[in-house]
Each structure stands twice: as C-alpha cells, then as structure tokens.
Design a protein that fits this description.
The strands form three sheets. This protein has a six-stranded antiparallel sheet. Strands 7-8-17-16-13-14 form a six-stranded antiparallel sheet. The chain has a five-stranded antiparallel sheet with strand order 9-10-11-12-15. It is about 35% helix and about 25% strand. It is of the alpha+beta class. The chain folds into two domains: about 140 residues, GAF domain (Beta-Lactamase); about 230 residues, 4-Layer Sandwich (Phosphatase 2c, domain 1), CATH 3.60.40. Helix 1 packs antiparallel against helix 2, helix 6 packs parallel to helix 7 and helix 7 packs antiparallel against helix 8. The chain starts with a helix and ends in a 13-residue tail after the last strand. The mean pLDDT is about 90. This is Phosphatase. GO terms for molecular function: phosphatase activity. Pfam families: SpoIIE (PF07228). It comes from Streptomyces avermitilis. Keywords: Hydrolase.
Length: about 400
C-alpha cells in the first residue's frame, strides 16, 4: 500500500471525532511528520482556531497576520523557511471552494519537495472527511467558535449551505454579521448540471422570532425548488407557507435568482429589500428589478420573474438592508456610493474574500464593530461555460 492510500484509508475508517488523531498517526509513520495541526476558520473569519487546543503550540491564529492565514487567503501552500532540519508547511483545507481552515505539517526539510503534492491532496481529503464527520459529531463546529453563539445564530448557521463554493462557471462567497449573534439574514444556494439557484434573505424582527421566520421561509423555498417548480412559483408557495403561519404579521424579504449555466441568462424575483450591484470592468452599477411584495405579507400573492444576463468577468454583489441602510454616527447612510467604493476597492480579491472585506469597510463607516442590524454580503464571480453561446445584448 502506498502512503497516500494509507492516509485515505486512515481518514475513512477513523471515528468521526478522531480524524486528526488518525491523520497525525499516519503522517508520522508514513511521512516522518514531527507535528500535525488542524486550524479551522471561526464563524467571523477573523482567526484560525486549533481543533485540539490542548496540544496546539500557538492557540488561535489571526487570519490577517500569520503564515497559516496567508495559506488560507491565497489558497496556496505556504512553506516556512527550514530550521534545525525541519520545515513547516501550511496547507489550505478546502472542499469545492468552501474554505474550512488550514492543515499545518512539520516534517524533515529534505522531504518537503517530494511530499508537497501529496500533502496538498491530503488536505483536500481531510476537508471532505470533516464534512461527512460533521453529521455525527459536534467536534468541528465547536472548534470554529471563538465565542458562544446565540441560539438564533446557531439556527441561522445550521441553515447555510457553506460560506463559499466554486465551479468552472462561477465562484461564490458569503458572510453574515454579527457572526455570533445573527438572527434574520440568510443565504442559500444550490446547483444542478444546468442551473444555479441563489436566495438572499432578510427576515423581519429580532432574535429567535426572526430566526424562526427565516427558517420557515428557506425550507419552504427549498421544498418548492426540490419539487422542480419554477422560480416564480417557488416564491408563491413560500409566500403561502409564511402567510399561513403568521397571517401577515411577519414577512420575509427575499431576492431569488436563477442562473442558466450555459448562457448566463438569469431569472429574478425581487420580493423585498436585498439589493444587487454589478461590477463589469471597472464600472459598478446598482441593478434594479421590479419590486414585488415580501413573502407572507398578503394571502396568495402572485410573483413574476424578470430576465437579466451576466457576461464572463462580471461580479455580482448582493447585500441586505443591514449593509446599504446602515447609518454612521453622524446619520449618513452607507448607501450606494460607499458600496460602489468598497466593491471597486476589493475587485482584485477572490469572491470568497470580498464579503468579509466589504463588512470590514462597513464597520469603519458604522464607527464600531457591533452592528445594530444583521448585515449580509454575497459575492458571485461569473466565468461562464466554455463554448457557451454569448448572451443577447441589452444588459
């Protein structure tokens, strides 16, 4: 058995809560590793938390001023200068574009060059093993928290599909703030061979009530989507579900977007306050759709889908009203101008990095780190499908 296959087998057969222990043992035996550490990005994407703090050499590692953080941000291995015959390599742990954390391995410096390609693959295999193991253990979700989550935040994070994902046609990234106390905002996405569906949600209210409302709305939309129902009817059925529960006293603002992967054609239902801005080249513009009623405001509302097109190279940024409507200490709202500056300033970052950078800029405008309302940013980079037909002119 070759050593890479031995690692795969060790991770596949390990108990869900013992993946790191199994990985340490096989890397020591097969790669002569001196130490192995797994760091997970926290919910706020500010630090990397050690999975095993009792054996960690450092404790939480800042994302923006550390070697492991460089590997996480660049999504490339970072090799420290060898010392005392040992080299330390930091490897991003990512699953289909979803950035989980960093695997740090210390091994003899003379082995690094030959081992690095396999270590990169091992980090990816570890990520897949963690995603599967999370069905049966809380070890990994517990390790991600540098603070305690509120109950509403716990419910919201459990609804999410991930924080980022990528395919040949697109890359997605998203972030919620306050990460440890979010209550009403949410996002959801799902792709099949032909389409990508994206929901940007802003539930009214606060605390548990807002979280329950959003949970009902998201699951109603998923139920309709999984039944193969068109986007406008997804909105109508979710509207009925929310109205049946709340009778118009609470409602859900949602922007529903469906992308046709082969052409870049979009169908959009604008049922509330989330907004979309498009970066094309160096030009940023807000894209306005026909405003329709939020889900659950009235009984049996009909919804109409609009068409729009994206071109390869376009970046779409979606924000909730907790971003575009937030006020500075002097009363000035963040608004479209500030959002345009933030999107322009972050144009060289990846889609996964943009939401956190925009929210950091928003924090400076707000004059403090603690928002009074939920804030949600979703970034989508559109690459298009190779050989696809060009989108019609006009958008």
């Amino acid at each position: 058995m070759n050593r890479f296959v031995a690692v795969e087998r060790a991770l596949r057969t390990a108990a869900p809560h013992q993946l790191l222990d199994a990985l340490r043992e096989v890397l020591r035996n097969r790669y002569a590793a001196e130490s192995v550490e797994f760091l997970l990005a926290d919910y706020g994407v500010t630090v990397l938390q050690p999975l095993s703090p009792e054996v960690s050499a450092t404790g939480p590692v800042p994302l923006h001023d550390s070697r492991a953080g460089r590997a996480f941000g660049a999504q490339e291995p970072f090799l420290e200068e060898p010392a005392d015959g040992l080299a330390r390599v930091h490897l991003p742990v990512t699953v289909r574009g979803d950035r989980l954390g960093v695997l740090t391995v210390t091994l003899p410096s003379e082995d690094v060059k030959d081992s690095l390609p396999e270590l990169r693959e091992i980090a990816e295999v570890l990520g897949h093993a963690v995603i599967v193991a999370e069905r049966d253990t809380d070890v990994y979700v517990q390790a991600r928290r540098k603070d305690r989550l509120t109950l509403a935040a716990e419910m919201q994070w459990q609804l999410l599909p991930g924080r980022s994902c990528s395919r040949p046609e697109y890359a997605l990234g998203a972030q919620l703030e306050p990460a440890y106390a979010i209550f009403g905002d949410n996002f959801d996405w799902s792709a099949d061979p032909d389409r990508l569906m994206l929901y940007i949600t802003n539930g009214m209210g606060e605390g548990i009530e807002a979280s329950l409302l959003t949970s009902l709305g998201i699951n109603a939309l998923r139920n309709a989507r999984r039944a193969g129902i068109p986007i406008e009817d997804q909105a109508a059925l979710a509207d009925q579900a929310v109205y049946a529960q709340y009778r118009g006293t609470s409602y859900l603002a949602v922007l529903l977007v469906e992308f046709e992967l082969s052409t870049g054609r979009m169908k959009v239902v604008d049922a509330g306050s989330p907004r979309m801005l498009r970066l094309r080249g160096r030009s940023v513009e807000a894209v306005d759709f026909e405003a329709q009623l939020p889900l659950g405001m009235f009984e049996e509302t009909d919804y109409v889908a609009q068409e729009f097109h994206v071109e390869p190279g376009d970046r779409l940024v979606f924000v909730s009203d907790g971003v575009h409507g937030v006020a500075a200490p002097g009363g000035e709202t963040y608004g479209e101008k500030a959002l345009t500056r933030a999107i322009t300033a972050t144009r060289l970052l990846s889609a996964a990095e943009v939401p956190h950078a925009v929210l950091r800029e928003l924090s400076g405008h707000r004059g403090g780190p603690s928002p009074a309302d939920d804030a949600l940013v979703v970034c989508l980079d559109w690459y298009g499908r190779r050989g696809a037909s060009p989108a019609p002119e006009g958008d």
